[in-house]
Write a structure and sequence with these properties.
Structural class: alpha/beta
Catalytic activity: L-alanine = D-alanine
CATH architecture of the largest domain: Alpha-Beta Barrel
CATH topology of the largest domain: TIM Barrel
Oligomer: single chain
Family: Belongs to the alanine racemase family.
EC number: 5.1.1.1
Strand content: 25-35%
CATH class of the largest domain: Alpha Beta
Pfam families: Ala_racemase_C, Ala_racemase_N
Helix content: 25-40%
Protein name: Alanine racemase
Radius of gyration: 24 Å
Bound molecules: pyridoxal-5'-phosphate
Number of domains: 2
């Protein structure tokens, strides 16, 4: 699977995306959920860095029912590439962009009566016979976007009742779905239950209620309601306990090769600002990956893998290159692994993210478009 890579990239660094792993993750997640629950595959940020189109295709083949992205731009890209599935845009779009959303058959997130008012002002009275499909976003405690109180909901109702509006869903998003302490999660869930009653006691017919992301869905299947929105878990990201229980596999790896290897004496400098000085005779390898590829300076204290052994990054990371300390001499051209398995060793996005105080997906989404994604299906 790697052999096919090299020549046409014009570069000896590539990210491998194991689509079979994504497919298997989707099937395993589905198996954990009550059977009637629908699965919305979240492919925002170019599929968490794995490729939105490729991820969407495998997710659908493996049982996903719909897709979600963050922005209109991402949804349009998928439609223009021929994706036919329902797509929800998770963040409200501008009212003047609504005709485009209808033309491309996209579902919108709505959070206020003021948005509807402005939308009608710029787009006119009615889209009928076309329908505008919306999901109403509720803020149950994340404090980000959405309706917080009943008054705001009531102000929305007349707009939602219009003949050309279809309320496909009502949803919320959790702040602490992965935390050991589940107190706040349950508070948010109960608040959403109350909000569902607002809808059920109103003239608005909501087709689908949903609240769970990956962690919530896998830890508390009873929170699945009608549908779950799965991002992280589909890519094999999540706390170890969840990953093991659901048999999730990482799908992304990142590889390069040494472009130069040099032997330095004790007391010589390596890299910008003389940030590293050898403290004995050392073999130093240059890896053609830098911060413009997503390997930020904050990953300076991590390790790469060469020949199944960890090799620490030394000195500062440059825009296009970085240096590592090798356990011995290796020829130029030797494979280097930045994410994934190499012999007995492996480095995970999760481990790298710990250096940033972030989540695994912060690493995968940071790998820039300068790094070609190579896909394998088995
Ligand atoms: C990104 C996102 C998700 C997916 O969350 P994961 O934890 O990656 O599964 C779900 N819902 C909303 C609103 C999101 O923004």
């Amino acid at each position: 699977m790697i052999a096919a890579v090299a020549p046409e990239l014009y570069r000896n660094t590539w990210a491998e995306v194991d689509l079979a792993a994504i497919g298997s993750n989707v099937r395993h997640i589905k198996r954990q959920l009550p059977s009637a629950v629908k699965l919305m595959a979240v492919v925002k940020a170019d599929g968490y860095g794995h490729g939105a189109l490729e991820t969407a295709r495998v997710a659908v083949e493996s049982g996903a029912d719909s897709l979600a992205v963050a922005y209109l731009s991402e949804a349009l890209t998928l439609r223009k590439q021929g994706v036919k599935l329902p797509i929800l845009i998770l963040i409200p779009i501008k009212p003047q962009e609504v005709p485009m959303a209808i033309e491309y058959d996209l579902m919108l997130t709505v959070t206020s009566a003021a948005w509807f008012k402005e939308m009608r002002r710029v787009c006119g009275h009615s889209f009928y016979p076309f329908m505008l499909n919306v999901h109403v976003k509720m803020d149950t405690g994340l404090g980000r976007i959405g309706i917080r109180d009943k008054q705001q909901w009531e102000a929305m109702v007349p707009w939602l009742e219009a003949a050309d509006i279809e309320v496909e869903g009502m949803f919320t998003h959790f702040a602490t779905a992965g935390d050991k302490d589940t107190g706040y999660l349950h508070t948010q869930f109960l608040r959403f239950r109350e909000m569902m009653e607002w809808a059920n006691n109103s003239p608005v017919h909501v087709k689908t209620f949903h609240c769970a992301n990956s962690a919530a869905a896998l830890r508390f299947p009873e929170m699945s309601l009608d549908m779950v929105r799965i991002g992280a878990a589909m890519y094999g990201f999540g706390p170890e306990s969840i990953k093991n229980a659901a048999r999730l596999e990482s799908a992304l790896s990142l590889h390069s090769s040494l472009i130069e290897v040099k032997h330095l004496k004790k007391g010589e400098y390596v890299g910008y600002d003389l940030a590293y000085r050898t403290d004995r005779e050392e073999w130093i390898g240059t890896v053609p990956v830098g911060y413009a590829d997503g390997w930020s300076q904050s990953l300076r204290h991590t390790e790469l893998i060469v020949d199944g052994q960890r090799a620490p990054i030394i000195g500062k990371i440059g825009m296009d290159q970085m240096m590592i300390r090798l356990p011995r001499e290796y020829p130029a051209g030797t494979k280097v692994t930045l994410i994934g398995r190499n012999g007995r060793e492996s480095v995970t996005c999760m481990e790298l993210a710990a250096n940033l105080g972030g989540a695994a997906q912060e690493i995968s989404t940071s790998i820039s478009c300068r790094v070609t994604r190579v896909y394998s299906e088995e």
